[in-house]
Amino acid sequence: MKRIFEVQPWDVVTHKFDPQDKRLQESMTSLGNGYMGMRGFFEEDYSADTLQGLYLGGVWFPDKTRVGWWKNGYPKYFGKVINAVNFIKMNFLIDGEKLDLAKDDFTDFTLDLNMKDSLLTRSFIVNKNGKKVKLTFERFLSVEQKELSVQKVSFENLSDDTVNIKVISAIDANVKNEDANYDERFWDVLDLTDDSIVAKTKPNNFGTPQFTSAMQMSHVTSLKEVDQTKTETETSKTFEIDLAKSAQASIEKRVIVTTSRDYDTVDELTAAMNSLTKKVMSRTFDELFTAHRDIWAERWNKSDVQIKGDVEAQQGMRFNLFGLFSTYYGDDARLNFGPKGFTGEKYGGATYWDTEAFCIPVYLGITDPKVTRNLLMYRYKQLDGAYVNAKEQGLDGALFPMVTFNGIECHNEWEITFEEIHRNGDIAFAIYNYTRYTGDKSYVLNEGSKVLTEISRFWADRVHFSQRNNQYMIHGVTGPDEYENNVDNNWYTNYLARWTLEYTLKVLNEVSDEQAAKLNISADEKKHWQDIVDRMYLPYDEKLGIFVQHDGFLDKDIKPVSELPSDQLPLNQNWSWDKILRSPYIKQGDVIQGIWDFMDDFTEDEKKKNFDFYEPLTVHESSLSASIYSVLAADLHYEDKAVALYERTARLDLDNYNNDTDDGLHITSMTGGWISIVHGFAGMRVHDDGTLSYKPFLPKKWDSYSFRQVFRGRVIEITIDKSGSHFKLISGEPLSIKVNDELVELN
């Protein structure tokens, strides 16, 4: 655990600069607008350790998969988001000497991410040969004009003598990914002008699309343009000014970024780039920023969770929401969440099961239903790829990928790729979750019924029937707890498979005759599915009264995490993989994940016994873990435990709990703060009959908390304080809800 930023309600700010924490600072000050994003690396060259990262939504490359030996059905490539052409590059010369904070003498350093306005500011005073200059950097990615990046650098001469300042503003295509298997560079420059670069991803051998990006810079400044330089991979302009004592000056850099995802030809791509550049150059910095800030204000007005009495909790909650909104706000149905969003290279920037299991429950509550529907449509549109994945394993139906950009599996670890198949059930659950929450059946009875049918066909082929036990089983899987690979009868996987078949059969009774004909499900298929539902094996221990995570789990040396020496945690950074696999320690909720999904289906005693058994064994080394345990702890009235787990999930990156934030934020786990408060502390549930209910409590060290929730055309404001719980209908038709099992009318 390491905290390098101050605790403030709306800002992530520090006045210290430690080169050892440079990457951590970059991760925590990342920006994004859903269309593109960037780590908080410096505009100027920095000669010490740094991880430069600029990423464009939906732009990726099929990198070579490095394996020791090949297996039938193994993914052909590892899909990854690639580092974009560096369009924010700006270098500075002060009296002819290059600015480099790895070498220079500087003071008064401030780095401030304003989450309310999505504005990154950096300032410092540099001392060069006895002359002092204050530099202030401002940066934002417009949410009003998604293709626009804006930078502003201001200078103030604090010296007694005139100082010469040169600014070299560039677009540089000489970039690479740090994690590229063969130190490859992924961009070929097609065209380069005085102010723009058009680059295309290099050809690949896997038949996946190549992407073209076009970037054009323009400047607003009182500095004089004195030079223009072009190389094979970079175009730059040089500006200069002699700044008198106490004088100030500034330069704005505006860059328009367009990609071939939106345009069919290079001519259309560059024409759009030119047109948008002219458009943004007709507006002032203040006009551009105000339009951007106003949209963020609307987002916060709908979704802000206000916590009084605990600034750490407040900052953590807003940091979570800021990270989510910077990554995805439903504006492009072709995009989805990457676990690191636009903040780093790890996990390849692809879509995981995180979306369905963690992101959808949050976005249902804070955005228009069409946003979540787009996420469901994302999977429907990739069914063709899911058929390929199942066929690679010799199985019927559809296997949705663990990791993907286009529906084809592109993860390079077998035990994850084709053993962690519970994600098929998580996608089915997301359809049910959306339908239950919104009351909208238009998806489930049409596109959704197709997705459910093909997932069910996969499950029906993936199970096997044990003659000895007279039950259906699923061998050779990995559950959500990835510290257990290639196990038999993972309870969560088996439970989801059974539930999916049962839910699909129910949906099939409601689809239209026309849709039923399209699905073409035989009576024999339905009969077989029902037999699996009736005879699915679910591991259970009578003595302990728990659902057993998988066959053989209880044969391990069961000792709680509390008995481990602290210097051995986190396990994934201190133990061999073999030792982890043989241990009883759980990376993230597995049985507990299933109980959270289907909370109404389990008794108080079942929830208690399973939580009491599994929580002491859980190391929470998945960023997704703490929030689920927090919800169940709250449900069981373990309030101190619920709050402690909330603090872990909400401040996971701010406090670098798992010592791994330097390579990027844990974006999909940023759902955890909202889940912990709304599902946990407020006890929000939506039941199968459509009833919305709450069982709230107030953490002891908080004065109050409040949030707004979107539900079936209404916006509800919920406030929990020391006087009790208060519910207000902000908009929409009157609604009946339950609070602590009592009916409350909202008018």
Supply the key terms:
alpha+beta, 31 strands, 30% helix, globular, 747 residues
User: Helix/strand/pairing class, anyone?
Assistant: alpha+beta
Helix content: 25-40%
Low-pLDDT ranges: none
CA-atom Rg in angstroms: 27 Å
Beta-strand content bin: 15-25%
Organism: Companilactobacillus baiquanensis
Keywords: Hydrolase
Domain Glycoside hydrolase family 65 C-terminal: 684-746
Family: Belongs to the glycosyl hydrolase 65 family.
Overview of this protein structure:
This protein has 747 residues and is α+β, with helices and mostly antiparallel strands. It contains 19 helices and 31 strands. The strands form eight sheets. The protein has a nine-stranded antiparallel beta sheet with strand order 1-9-10-11-12-19-16-15-14. A five-stranded antiparallel beta sheet has the order 8-7-13-18-17, with no helix packed on it. It has a four-stranded antiparallel beta sheet with strand order 20-27-28-29. The longest helix has 19 residues, at 285-303. The two termini are 46 Å apart. The model has no long low-confidence stretch (mean pLDDT 95).
SSE topology:
Blueprint: E1 11-14, H1 22-28, E2 31-32, E3 36-38, E4 54-56, E5 60-64, E6 77-81, E7 90-94, E8 97-98, E9 105-114, E10 119-128, E11 131-141, E12 148-157, E13 163-172, E14 187-192, E15 196-201, E16 212-221, E17 224-230, E18 234-243, E19 248-259, H2 266-281, H3 285-303, E20 306-308, H4 311-327, H5 354-366, H6 369-380, H7 383-392, H8 414-417, H9 422-438, H10 447-462, E21 464-466, E22 471-473, H11 491-508, H12 513-519, H13 523-535, E23 540-541, E24 546-547, H14 577-582, H15 591-597, H16 604-614, H17 625-635, H18 639-650, H19 671-681, E25 685-686, E26 692-694, E27 704-711, E28 714-721, E29 724-731, E30 735-739, E31 742-746
Parallel strand pairs: 26-30
Antiparallel strand pairs: 1-9, 2-3, 3-4, 5-6, 7-8, 7-13, 9-10, 10-11, 11-12, 12-19, 13-18, 14-15, 15-16, 16-19, 17-18, 20-27, 21-22, 23-24, 25-26, 27-28, 28-29, 30-31
Helix pairs in contact: 4-18, 4-19, 5-6, 5-9, 5-19, 6-9, 6-10, 9-10, 9-11, 10-11, 11-13, 15-17, 17-18, 17-19, 18-19
